Amino acid sequence: MQQRASAEPKVFLNYTQAELDAAYDQAAYAPNREQLGARRSSLSDDVRERLGAPEHYAYGESAVEGLDVFRVKTPNAPIFVLVHGGAWRAGTAADYAYPAELFVRAGVAFVALDFVAVQDAGGSLFPMAEQVRRGIAWVWKNAAKIGGDPARIYIGGHSSGSHLASCALIANWRNYGAPDNFIKGAILGSGMYDLAPVRLSARSKYVKFTDEMVEELSAIRHLDRITAPLVLAYGTLETPEFQRQSRDFAAALKAAGKKVELIVGEHYNHFEMSETYANPFGILGRAALDQIGVNRAAGS
After folding, report:
1. N or C: which end of the chain has fewer CB within 10 A?
2. Cα 86 to Cα 66: distance, rounded to the nearest angstrom
3. Which H helix or E strand runs over 41?
4. Comparing C-alpha atoms, which of 276, 277, 280 is closest to residue 268?
């Protein structure tokens, strides 16, 4: 009698290797990915045309260590710093200017960070996290220079940008010449907060994960370091792992007594969630303005 072939082994939870790879790849879940990427760039061009070119500053010595600032007319404005996504491999501050008008019209200075791509950092996420932290510290140190209030700095991210923003939330800011607790809140959309399952996926082909990287750059493992209120969000049309990562991180934060809100975007895929940063009544835009405490109908 012929023996029945054994089932494909599970590599994480109930995922086979192919299933886990798919769970960390948005392509199959977002057929309009290319369209939305092109639209982000176009919308960013439109925003620069209406608001004018942003001020550009260097926060470090290498060419990529820069940030774009869209300031407001009133002094001592709150500041929102966006960390862009792109699977750690792509994206620039210029392509993520599209939410700037929302914030500026509400009286919030908008900052978009640039930082190295993982393939240009030898496959390590440590230089990326380090640059994001230094960029945010630069904003605190130079808040007055860009018309902002150092006591009202908020950060946000999407996708891999949310992972890097979460690394900022667990930083020892004394190492960067900034005080503890200067980040007053964070909006994290569609992110990854535990790198262990990501390491098992096909993303390990371009990220050289190590035990140290997984331990040090997984925010869910350092809940004690998190002091800022968080809003986590994901869309119901995202991959199952991106949904689970947000749910599990929110549950862990709540169990640890941290201030956290979890928002579910019904019928949004991964890249559609990112666009909601530019809408005052969208999921991420509304959450950001509410967290900062500004009137979404206010002018600049």
Report:
1. N
2. 17
3. helix 33-51
4. 276
CATH code reported for the domain at 12-21+54-291: 3.40.50.1820
Model-level pTM? 0.96
Chain position carrying tokens 């299933």? 19
* 3-class state of residue 226 by DSSP: coil
pLDDT per residue as tens, the chain (300 positions): 444 445 789 999 999 999 999 999 998 899 999 999 999 999 999 999 999 999 999 999 999 999 999 999 999 999 999 999 999 999 999 999 999 999 999 999 999 999 999 999 999 999 999 999 999 999 999 999 999 999 999 999 999 999 999 999 999 999 999 999 999 999 999 999 999 999 999 999 999 999 999 999 999 999 999 999 999 999 999 999 999 999 999 999 999 999 999 999 999 999 999 999 999 999 999 999 999 999 655 444
Q: Where are the domains of the chain?
A: 12-21+54-291
Tokens of 274: 């990112």
